[in-house]
Structure prediction request, 338 residues.
Amino acid sequence: MTAGFKFEHVGAEVNLIARLLRTDFWWLVAYGALANVCVIIVFAALFMGLGDSCVETAHFTTSHILDALSQAPTHQGKFLQRRATVLSAASLQGGVPKNTFRDALALSVHTFTTVGYGSVVPTCVEGNGLVVAETFCAVLVTAFLTGVMVAKVLQARPAIQFSTEALITEIDGISHLVFRLVRSCNYPLMEFTVKVFADFASSSRESETFQTQADDGRIVSSVSIPLTLVRSERLELHQFEVRHKIDETSPLHKSWKPHQVWTGLGVVTCYFDTSYNQECRQYHRYSPAQVIPCAKFDDMVQLPGGKLILFHHAKLNVHSHQEVEGELAAKMCTSEIL
Prediction:
């Protein structure tokens, strides 16, 4: 029936990259970087505490190496000997300076990142033990943070956006509870189903199921009753309007159980997310204050021409007052319903 049609969601997320740009993911990256910095600083302080005898720094510059190479003879043995002499003299010139926290921090960074330049090296058993410990910590921290970030990226996020309000709308002379939803992504959501439950509460002093204790000592019981929907499933979700007919058989009709108080609606959706390749469930709730009588939703679907169908997400919550006359108007706009 929809073969050859092109569906476009105006205002939906572009793709998976858009989800990575959300703030919560980058907060996780920031926390991971902070953890790495803390480990590096702690081990730098431990290296600093070992003293100069356990950490040795090569105090020579690139100019010394270039000077040694420029004076190198052709014979290999004499060249190595000459280079060692020049570097030793350069490193001992003016005395070997004491190691600073900067040197200890460099050693810690080289060890944590497994760079190993060799410009700062441990020379005692304790120093080598700290190197082993920091390397082990680096592997654990990196593996843990990588796993958490991958799990965060692969975790399915809510892909359905619900209207902020549900409406009581007249359709073919009968009152209907109506709310609508739309997929908030630009990739398909398949095998969509929806269930709606009406929550009721009643108070008594007798034992009942689903009980909670009220502040005044009364026993308040609650129960969720499934509502019969006009349509409850779709192969591929684009935009869906959920409807429940409010008649004498509906739990939302006042004559159904007058001793119970309606406390809200619970919505359960189930769909297959093709981006994450997994089945997902999403929940939503409407309170009685979010149900608007005598109103109807404005159309959010546009047909500009050809086989292009546009879904405007900005119009998801747009509704207007519905003029209803006669007995139905008295029921919809008073307490006869709900």
About this structure: Confidence is low (pLDDT under 50) at residues 86-95, 205-211. The chain has two domains: 18-154, 160-332. The two ends are 38 Å apart (CA to CA). Residues 18-154 form a domain with the Helix Hairpins fold (CATH 1.10.287.70).
